[in-house]
Specification:
Largest sheet: 6 strands, mixed
Bound molecules: pyridoxal-5'-phosphate
Radius of gyration: 21 Å
Oligomer: single chain
Helix content: 40-55%
Distance between the termini: 42 Å
Structural class: alpha/beta
Length: 496
């Protein structure tokens, strides 16, 4: 199995190379060159396995330059009990047509742990296999969840360092505390005066500085990214779609061979794209429902074939889905256009020039065979949090609520649907508490007090990783202007 760029520049790339490189040299994304397909018999065997067993099976087919023992070791280390005390993910069937796949039982309480706990191990192994002796520094800009999950994943990984930039006023109190109290000897966290876009632009500038890259190379160092466009992040996400199916078959909710639907709260289109790859690999999936918040550029695209980012950016209560350019969509379009890399390059050029492109009718119809889509606003998400708690005594966060709300709007309910739950409700405690208790929350109440109140009133315990956050020692206090980012990165890379 080798990988190729969606824009045609690189081909015959191994899994290891794809993970280390992240982005293809022509700016495209790596996609599998060969088709991966599991037979019904193979899927049936997986239905009798636990999460780690399924993970090893799925990953080995896409990462064939790793041997079985190497994959097994990555899987066992990534999803071990200390990291996921309750198991890698939770699964709750609420109704005869609805289950929730909880992807937030990891160390940072967000779905990004599912990939970012194992991706650093892939990278470490890939470096070793390829005899790569350069010291790697991961640079990331974050709007909240990615930064913390990447820090946790890369902390104390030998030969790799990680630095995270976040907007000083752009993340929640809980998210900020999660990052500035981060443990590990190879980590650094710096706040930027400005918004997420300033932080992101600053990181991109460092990556595209050719002179700096040359200097690093001369000193035996290199930069890499933990961004969700890295195939090493997408691959581990395919696993939990198979796991969901296994859960439903084992419980007798569906018969083996019956199709199920998935509904996925979407931002950068990584989580949902993994579902598409699971379906392509033979998992019996009917419709994949793409749920967006007010930033509904992707759900509009799936409905009309027109991608148009020339619209207002809305800051919502589901910030991890606030996005205008969903990078991973490029991989879906590549398939829809019959793997025509020239056509993909053309569209992506249009996107960066005009902020807009349109795909042909036939390509759209192909996409719509697999995907349905819809969007819900903050009021609908908030109402859904209250409704689901009232009806099932079950707590969901605002991102998951967008998913459930869209499911209720667009599903034909012909098949059992699994809604993907992407964050612990306690990570977004203020929005959840306000949805449930409205104006009973006093103005200016701290997030630790809100968590205590939410837990006390609902009987749902605060997840262990979020407990005592406000008592932990703050390690990273620095706030800098965006133009200081290159200097800060260089100081960290050179241990100054
Ligand atoms: C990152 C994130 C999403 C969006 O996932 P994509 O793969 O970017 O589509 C949704 N919810 C939460 C809580 C997230 O952290």
């Amino acid at each position: 199995m080798t990988y190729t760029s969606t824009r045609g520049g690189d081909a015959g790339i191994s899994f290891s190379e794809a993970v280390i490189q992240g982005l293809a040299s022509d700016g495209g994304l790596f996609v599998p060159e060969d088709e991966v397909r599991f037979t019904p018999e193979e899927i049936k065997v997986m239905c009798g396995m636990d999460y780690k067993g399924i993970a090893a099976r799925v990953i080995s087919r896409f990462a064939d330059d790793f041997d079985d023992a190497e994959i097994e070791k990555c899987v066992m280390d990534a999803y071990r009990k200390e990291k996921f005390p309750e198991g890698p993910c939770g699964f709750t069937t609420l109704d005869k047509d609805l289950s929730i796949l909880e992807l937030w039982h990891g160390p940072t309480c967000a779905f990004k742990d599912m990939a970012l706990q194992i991706m650093p191990l892939f990278m470490r192994k890939a470096v070793e296999k390829r005899g790569e002796s350069k010291e790697i520094t991961i640079l990331t800009a974050t709007s909240g969840d990615t930064g913390k999950a990447a820090l946790e994943g890369f902390k104390d990984v030998p030969g790799i360092k990680i630095m995270v930039f976040y907007p000083s006023e752009g993340v929640s109190e809980t998210q900020k505390l999660q990052m500035v109290t981060q443990a590990g000897s190879n980590v650094n966290v710096v706040a930027i005066r400005g918004n997420f876009d300033n932080a992101q632009t600053g990181v991109k500038k460092i990556f595209s500085d050719k002179a700096f890259a040359k200097k690093l190379l001369g000193d035996g160092k290199m930069l890499s990214s933990a961004n969700s466009i890295n195939w090493g992040r997408l691959l581990p996400q395919i696993v939990y779609y198979f796991h969901s199916y296994a859960k439903l078959v084992t419980a007798g909710t569906v018969r083996f061979g019956d199709e199920i639907d998935f509904c996925v709260p979407t931002g950068n289109f990584g989580d949902i794209l993994a579902c598409y790859y699971a379906k392509k690999a033979g998992l019996p999936v009917g419709r994949i429902i793409c749920a967006c918040n007010e930033n509904n550029v992707v759900s509009d695209f799936l409905a009309t074939g027109v991608y148009d980012k020339n619209r207002e950016f809305v800051t919502t209560t589901s910030p991890a889905m606030d996005i205008l350019v969903s990078s991973n969509l490029e991989r879906l379009i590549y398939d829809a256009l019959g793997r025509n890399s020239e056509a993909v390059s053309g569209l992506m050029k249009k996107l960066s020039k005009d902020g807009k492109y349109e795909i042909a009718r036939g390509a759209l119809e192909k996409i719509q065979k697999d995907f349905a889509s819809g969007s819900s606003d903050q009021k609908e998400a908030s109402d859904t949090i209250a409704e689901i708690f009232k009806k099932y005594n079950y707590l969901i966060d605002p991102h998951t609520a967008v998913g459930v709300s869209v499911f209720e709007k667009v599903s034909d309910k012909a098949r059992h649907t699994v809604c993907v739950s992407t964050a612990s409700p306690f990570k977004f405690n203020k929005c959840v508490a306000e949805s449930l208790f409205g104006n009973e929350i006093p103005e200016g109440m701290g997030e630790d007090a809100i968590s205590a109140l939410l837990s006390g009133r609902t009987g749902v315990p605060v997840p262990v990783p979020l407990r005592g956050l406000f008592e932990r020692k703050v390690r990273f206090k620095e706030i800098v202007d965006p133009d200081m980012m290159p200097k800060k990165a260089e100081d960290f890379i050179y241990d100054r």
